[in-house]
Amino acid sequence: MDASAAGGDLPFVAYYPEGYAHDGINEFVPITNNSDEEVRFELHARYETGERDQLVASGVIAPHSRGGVTLNAADRPEERLVRKDVPYALELRASAPVGATMSHYDFGTAIGESFTTTTDIEWTFAEGYKDPENTRDFLVFYNPGERDAHVAVVIYSADGRAFPLVSTVGAGRRGGWNINEEASIPFGGFTVQVVSSEPIVAAMSRYDLRGGRGAGFIGTPGGGATAGVLPSVTFDADNRGETDPELDAQSYIGLLNTDQVHTANVTLRFLPLNGEPEVPDMTVAVPPQVRGGVSIRDLNLPPGQYGIAYRSDIPITATSSVYQGRDGTGMESIIDASTRWEFGEGFMSPARAGKTVTENLNLYNPGGEAVDVTVDFSFSDGTVHTLTRRLEARAAATVAIHEIPEVAALGYDSFYGIRVSADEPIAASFEHWDDDLGGGFATPGTPTGEIRPISEIASA
């Protein structure tokens, strides 16, 4: 790595493996310091080809404040901080934990995903789709180590066929595939298993060109887990005002079982978030090495918002995909709970709050005792608003940010980050919808507290 990134005075390191800039893309990295002390940071680009390293930004973020970096603005190409048309990963270093988000606007939609501090030799994804006419799916990874990583990927189709891909990613480099350009992979849905000789970070981004829908997500490390949660899966009976029936609201749960022999028996527990009626648990059998899952529409659930906690007799990977009109979100399940979660990006417009701009903070308590949860909103001007919520045992809840007066009415356009903390480990995710700009995304936060696997907590 370049010498400026090697110093021990910036011990917090987080990654996002996908970045790209050209004249039609907007790309930002909001960074929020939720602590009581100022934080110094450096943001580095690690390019796939050519000169590998670039320090693109550095600075200081005041206590309880949101800052960040504009990497590329489509209307201001002269201010671009990164090389045009050369793929890169991003590595963030800071003097203390921060929340950071990759915000990428392309193909008429948005991707928003928290940076991760996790590296692993195995990553899995339970949802992908190949359709050259209508979709673009990209599988990317970043090798932060000092040795080349030999990466083996297997794409699993719904009918049980396996399609291998192999690559070598240099030390400190980004690599990956545009799935549509891989002729061996058939059209339709698929899941992904990534195995590397060195610890890497892997992510997917997907774009629906016709519907202007998109999502980006970090994969599930370690090949999956026997328990986890998708904190929010929304199903709306209407299609948010659209007239094209092809754009009706849809929600899917993708499931992947990478075991070579055994079928996974997965129990899904639906957790109503806004007063929806109770829904019976259901069990889904996922054959070995097959793309599986369920359509929320096909389950005939009452419209609404649900958290979905799952248990499985062998490790699996779960992904949620939510489509509403001309927007969409996607998120891998949360398999580890933490006593603290950091989120780099939040935005609210008073005139549009609860109408065309909605934001929800989704929480899940896997433990057997109720916990008090503290939520701190840190604004760009240093203003802080704090609230608390009681989270019952093994229950989910939503904080509707657009309904909080101190947030929704603070200035014309409010930019902020969020810290969620509790005495016992919980799961937390953030969901944003902007019907005017097509800026929907969902993401777990970056865990920076005491971390425990949900499988351990739920079985206690």
Describe the structure.
By secondary structure, the protein is mainly β. Among the domains are: 3-106, Hypothetical Protein Tm1070, Chain: A (Sandwich); 338-460, TM1070-like (Hypothetical Protein Tm1070, Chain: A). Helix content is 2%, strand content 59%. The protein contains 2 helices and 32 strands. The chain has helices at residues 405-408, 454-458; strands at 12-19, 26-33, 39-47, 53-61, 65-72, 88-94, 99-106, 109-114, 120-130, 135-142, 149-157, 162-169, 174-178, 188-208, 213-218, 220-221, 225-235, 250-256, 264-272, 282-286, 291-295, 304-324, 327-332, 336-348, 357-365, 371-379, 384-391, 395-400, 414-434, 441-444, 446-447, 451-453. Strands 24, 25, 26, 27, 28, 29, 30, 31 and 32 form a 9-stranded antiparallel sheet that branches. Strands 9, 10, 11, 12, 13, 14, 15 and 16 form an 8-stranded antiparallel sheet that branches. Strands 17, 18, 19, 20, 21, 22 and 23 form a 7-stranded antiparallel sheet that branches. Strand 29 and strand 30 form a beta hairpin. The protein is globular, with a radius of gyration of 20 Å.
